[in-house]
Design brief:
Shape: extended
Helix content: 40-55%
Largest sheet: 3 strands, antiparallel
Strand content: 5-15%
Distance between the termini: 76 Å
């Protein structure tokens, strides 16, 4: 029986393709799975089943024809006679998985850490960067190569650059805990890319991404080795450029160019301004875009926008929308005035007003219970506890390191602040560490929370993965964090200094939580006084 990480044992089964009985995962045996990846499905001429076909016959018919040919003639001529015997197949001999090998022998027992039947390969010999005694200079400069037309059968395994790359790949695999499949795929990708490599060539992202992805090879791991060799150039377009082009679509040419310059200054900084976070840049451009689209119907440049236009647009907004969009518009026009693009700032002396925050409301037990029920894995249960008990933000959870956990002293460091470990978090933390050790015993990632994508790297998990389990629930990770801080204010009194000391909040945020707690604590007293005669 096959043993899975969660302890479930899959019994032996029959393959849906060749009907072979054996021990494998999924619906197909490994041979039928690989056969199906290289052949299209249709109705088999022999058995009339809908299966992947090679020359109009499925793999089961091929196995039966090969068996008949081996029994009728000598083994050397069997392969020649197989195709001729396909049309006369009238029955199928059922078999166990792995019996129909070309040499007629049973597969060798599987060794741990290696392919089925393959001997254990020793690690590659140490290799270094090849010496460049001389090389032929290119006549027309660097000509882009078409790696998609390379034939895997024509790989030059004696290339010294490939030898060096395989040694570096082995070192990276040992250091970062790459599995057997990743190591094999990386070596295959390196062989395709470096078979004709010579000193001075540059391998670019735009040239190798599509060929490697079409062969299901790990692009990121191959690029890691090429970067270690110093022969890779990342010419991929950043996601910010595509997003910016989409956000500026529909604006008048003059307004578009000025807005693009302002957005880039926000992101990259300027002579008298510091760069903003990319998330802040997204918010600012998204907030000014509706107003700029409306003004693009009448104007071609920002200098044509008047104070009356701004006031007329703001009249259509209320609450936090007016507050947020006015702040973004003031940033845009202040930058344009400072750089001489407009004569007068149309947003000057327009009051933003004090933003009135609503009273924070605590979560009801039913909402919390549904989120607890949605946390079904060791990772999601630990994430839920970090947000609901320790008020950790999503980004803070993702950046937690193994060194931040002190099990002996029952302490946990979150965002530089040491917090005691309660019994619940301690138990969930031990469960996760046990699962992590069993699932990825050789990982070199020092982050506390890892997944299948980051276990073979050193980067942290994404915010999307951290919050995915609670997405769609009433009690999301952010609301659980807010509820924990509000609960502290309700339990120990609305003291901003206490909240700032416990959770590391800034002055404005701690005052907001204190005001909400004070309003919630005073509301029952006011209700009671109104009903008293």
């Amino acid at each position: 029986m096959s043993r899975y990480p969660n302890g479930y044992c899959k019994p032996a089964d029959s393959c849906d393709g060749c009907l072979a009985w054996g021990d494998f995962s999924g619906r197909l045996c490994p041979a039928c799975y690989m056969f199906g990846r290289g052949h299209a499905a249709d109705v088999c001429v022999g058995c009339r089943r809908v299966q992947p076909l090679k020359w109009d016959f499925c793999r089961l018919c091929w196995c039966q024809a090969r068996l008949d040919a081996q029994a009728a003639v000598d083994r050397l001529a069997a392969e020649v006679d197989v195709r001729a015997r396909l049309n006369v197949v009238r029955h199928h001999q059922l078999f166990f998985m792995g019996m129909h090998h070309r040499n007629g022998s049973a597969p060798a027992p599987r060794r741990r850490g290696g392919r089925r039947g393959a001997p254990h390969k020793p690690p590659p010999a140490p290799a270094w960067r090849p010496n460049a005694d001389w090389r032929q200079l290119p006549l027309f400069g660097q000509v882009p190569r078409d790696y998609g037309r390379l034939d895997p059968s024509g790989v030059d395994l004696t290339n010294p650059w490939l030898t060096w790359a395989k040694y570096l790949a082995h070192r990276l695999a040992e250091a970062r805990g790459w599995g057997r499949n990743i190591r094999f795929a990386v070596n295959r990708g390196l062989a395709l890319l470096l078979t004709r490599y010579v000193e001075g060539d540059v391998i670019r992202h735009s040239e190798i991404f599509t060929p490697l992805r079409s062969r299901d090879l790990p692009v990121g791991h191959v690029i890691t080795v090429l970067e270690e060799m110093g022969i890779f150039e990342d010419d991929s377009e950043p996601s910010f450029e595509g997003w910016l082009a989409g956000r500026l679509e529909g604006l008048a040419p003059g307004i578009r160019s000025e807005t693009e310059r302002w957005t880039r200054v926000l992101r990259d900084g300027g002579p008298r301004s510091l760069p903003r976070r990319e998330g802040t840049v997204w918010l600012y451009l998204n907030r000014v875009r509706p107003a700029l689209l409306e003004w693009s119907n009448s104007y071609d440049h920002l200098r044509e926008v008047t104070r009356d236009d701004v006031l007329a647009y703001l009249k259509t907004l209320h609450g936090h929308q007016r507050h947020d969009q006015l702040i973004a518009l003031r940033s845009l026009f202040a930058w344009a005035k400072r750089n001489g693009l407009i004569f007068r700032n149309p947003t000057s002396r327009i009051k933003v007003g004090q933003y009135e925050y609503a009273v924070l409301q605590p979560l009801v037990p039913a909402q919390v219970d549904r989120s607890v029920a949605a946390a079904t894995t060791p990772a999601t249960r630990l994430i839920l506890a970090l947000a609901a008990v320790h008020a950790a933000r999503v980004a803070q959870i993702a950046t937690l390191m193994l060194d931040d956990v002190d099990l002996g002293n029952r302490r946990l460091t979150i965002a530089g602040r040491v917090r005691p470990l309660d019994d619940l978090t301690m138990k969930l933390l031990l469960d996760w560490l046990k699962h992590r050790r069993n699932r990825w015993p050789n990982t070199a990632n020092l982050h506390l929370l890892i997944n299948i994508q980051t276990a073979t790297k050193t980067s942290r998990a994404s915010n999307h993965w951290i919050s995915a389990s609670m997405r769609g629930q009433d009690a999301t990770l952010e609301r659980l964090r807010v509820d924990r801080q509000l609960e502290e204010a309700l339990t120990h009194g609305p003291d901003p200094l206490h909240l700032a000391q416990v959770f590391g909040l800034d002055e404005k945020t701690s005052i907001r939580y204190a005001n909400s707690a004070r309003a919630l604590l005073e509301r029952p007293l006011e209700t009671a006084s109104e009903t008293t005669p």
